[in-house]
């Protein structure tokens, strides 16, 4: 094999072959009530236990409905009246990266610590960021409640608040994240509306048209990015 052909082969290997870069497996583990999934370019369909969910897909839950999504190294509980998109699901070398967009609703996540594996778990919407070094938290787009680990909660202008296990904090819009306080038996209210909710099949801002209605009184998230990195 001459030098020119060898060079072309090496270029092909560098740019077209990446054996350690794969899409992570995501599976619907449990379903309660009405849950729908919409794959990229597809239509809404009823979710099924064991159903695989791909990058770019939306998950929507109805009233008194929920779904448990298994990412392998993490588990996500999607609570009622939630619209969520799986933006990125990849494994590369010793890193697992998951990116989610929470349009409306509430989720609870448990990220497992795996020896020798770095995990980057990002949950976003437009205005705040929470950098999490821990394993379990709950988020509704404005408030974060930490069960295990520590969360650095950051609003849109970079103001921060550290939230430890057993505490919660809120950061609506440009407001400074509230002082972390011990969790009490009380409901958390989403207080900001940044996009039009979908009602009775009407197409929403995200271009989806799920048959699961989002009540007019149900506000959407103010926006957050939750960055969880477990070395």
From TrEMBL:
It holds the Pfam family FecR. Residues 179-222 are annotated as: Disordered. This is FecR protein domain-containing protein. InterPro entries: FecR (IPR006860). The lineage of its organism: unclassified sequences, metagenomes, ecological metagenomes. Residues 59-151 form the FecR protein domain.
């Amino acid at each position: 094999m001459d030098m020119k052909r060898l060079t072309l082969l090496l270029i092909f290997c560098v740019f077209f072959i990446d054996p350690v870069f794969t899409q992570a497996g995501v599976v619907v583990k449990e379903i309660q009530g009405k849950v729908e999934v919409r794959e990229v370019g597809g239509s809404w369909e009823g979710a099924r236990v064991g159903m695989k969910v791909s990058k770019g897909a939306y998950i929507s839950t109805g009233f008194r409905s929920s779904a448990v999504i298994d990412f392998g190294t993490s588990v996500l509980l999607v609570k009622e009246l939630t619209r969520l998109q799986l933006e990125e699901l990849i494994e590369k070398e010793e890193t697992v990266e998951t990116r989610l967009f929470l349009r409306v609703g509430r989720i609870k996540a448990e990220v497992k610590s795996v020896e020798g594996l770095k995990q980057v778990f990002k949950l976003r919407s437009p205005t705040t960021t929470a950098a999490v070094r821990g394993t379990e938290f709950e988020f509704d787009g404005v408030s974060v409640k930490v069960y295990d680990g520590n969360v650095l909660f950051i609003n849109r202008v970079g103001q921060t608040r550290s939230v430890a296990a057993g505490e919660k904090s809120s950061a609506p819009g440009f407001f400074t994240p509230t002082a972390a306080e011990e969790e009490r038996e009380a409901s958390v209210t989403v207080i900001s509306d940044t996009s039009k909710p979908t009602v009775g099949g009407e197409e929403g801002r995200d271009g989806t048209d799920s048959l699961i209605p989002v009540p007019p009184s149900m506000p959407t998230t103010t926006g957050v990015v939750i960055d969880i990195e477990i070395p």
